[in-house]
Amino acid sequence: MAVWLPALAGFSLLARITYLREVADARHAVEQLGESIASSVERELDKRVFMARALSASSALADPDLRRFHREASGALKGSGAWAVLVDERMQLVNTVLPFDAQTLRERPPGLPLLREGSAILFAARGAATGRPVLGAFVPEAQATPVVRNVGVVFEMAAIQGILDSQNAAQGSLSAVVNQDFVIMARSRDPQKWVGAKAGPEIQRRVRDKEVGFGESVTLDGVPSLTFITPANRFGWTIVLALPKNALTAAAQRLTMQVLAASAAILAIGLAAVLYLARRVGAPVIALRDDAIRLGDDSVPPERPFPVLEVREVSRALHAAGRRSHEAKQLLETRVREAVVDAESAQAKLLEGQKREAIGRLTGGLAHEFNNLLQTISVALQVLERDAKEGRNARVLQSAKQATRRAADLVRQMLSFGRDRPLKREPVQLARLLGGSQELTDKAVGEKIVLSVDVPADLPPVYVDPAQLELAVLNLVFNARDAMPNGGRIAIGATLHAAASNALDATDQVCLSVADNGSGMDELTKVRAFEPYFTTKPIGAGSGLGLAQVAAFVRQSEGHASIDSVPGRGTTVSLWLPVAAADAKAPASAPATAPAPRVLPLQILMVEDDDLVSAVVVPALERLGHAVRLCTSSDAARQLLQDERERFDVLFTDIVMPGGSSGLDLARWARVHRPSLPIVVATGYTVREVPSDLELLRKPYEIDALMLSMLRAIEAAPR
Known about the structure:
This protein is α+β, with helices and mostly antiparallel strands. Helices cover 46% and strands 18% of the residues.
């Protein structure tokens, strides 16, 4: 009994631990499945709402004859498994599931509201045209004020049911999708019977009270279950998953029987050992105890060659149990990896569906990465140039540096055309701006068109946003190019116009003009040219937003635009821009090539996550005699600066950083906790505004420019 009772207690504890682990694993699997289903359902609904919003903005809705809207909507949704409807408060006006000539006014299913704003997913037990249960993603008509019609994208219930059918759920478990009205939209078991019915009272109460997570309930088909409810998504839909209680109790019964069987075996072994091998069984029992501990620690006990057969069998059983546990763990890890692969695949599909949004961010992201690469190349060339003697190698390095600067200029032009930012006005020299972007513009117009720029260098600066001005000029050049498919000439010019002495607004203006010798415009086209969405190009060849952007930019810049055009002779678009006031400040520009003065060795804290950049900048600074301490994240730098014993002469950080905080967050923290520490921030691209009290260094930078920025920061820092 002295051997059997501890063994029984140990196996009982092991069984309890194993049972709790299995229950925890089952609950975790249910949570993961619920989150996966909820994510898939929300993506499916978002996709339908996106389609509806796109259709709601169609100009065809303004036509009294809705035939064109029917044609556009049918083409847009072809192959998607969905169809479009146009409804007012009571009637269904258009349904693309039917030919337009077969359309008849039908009453909407009762209880469906007319949306004035936002979006909604509505369920109809009987569709007006199909007669089957359907779902619809509805949004208000975008161009109408007040809203009297809704545009909907209707789809079959099978789209939601298919999400549940594709899940790898546990045997006997149940999953269901419940909408905002507690109606079952999809169900993994008996969907034909329960889809369209109300969820049970307990589920309704928990959803209404936002009691998410696990709880006990009885399914509609009478199965007592442990039920998991996910938080409602933005449409009010929730996912309900039920795990039968008998599945959990079966595991407990199985483990109990295993404990009883193991205990009986140990009792038999103990009795035999006491009767026949009392003196020889002590050491094997201790070894078995150690093996049981190893088994409890998820280790595989060794198979021991004990002289007593019974003890040897127990050792073999422990070894087999440990091996099975190890194999089960490996199987679990394999399934987790497969789940990760599935999640990555779903993410890839989501990214593919969001391609248009990604295009807008792609330019900035690529420019940021290119700037880091150019930074590495630029500093490496500077280091090599310092060591190179006069001769061919020095000339080659100088050419490489010029190519690097040219690449950096091209990246800045990409950023000016690619990123969306608020209007930021500053004094701009037209000759310098247009000359700097002419190479890019020449390539854009093609070889058939001759582009000339005639802007006097002595023109006073205009007060505009330079990036928006570049975009406006580019839009005008593209419009001129499209008006000359067989080639021609585009001339960009600028002249100064002094304000009249008796004018209410006595401000000098510069007239920037873009002229072509293309097809020209008639009077009706010229009057409407600046209207948004107005275009004379074929469908798909233009959005009608180019000249609208130009007009909006000029208006925001306190100027105006005009068009002079004659059919067959060409078009001239003139932008009248205000001259910058004498006290207007131009953005500071640090000299890129001026050598930095010799300074005492500095203690520099450098924060840079890009290994390529730090691999060349740190040695370059050290060769100048400075001591550099490198951190690869803002969090690591903050932890270092919290130590008052650490002293630095300057903090030099990149803005875009991994982790929870950026370089700007680190700079703000340092302003509070290390107010006397000079700070220099470097970036090649950021959408966040950099405070004016920080020394900003644009990538790619030269080491001399970096040293000058550090000196300016040190001089400006509080003493």
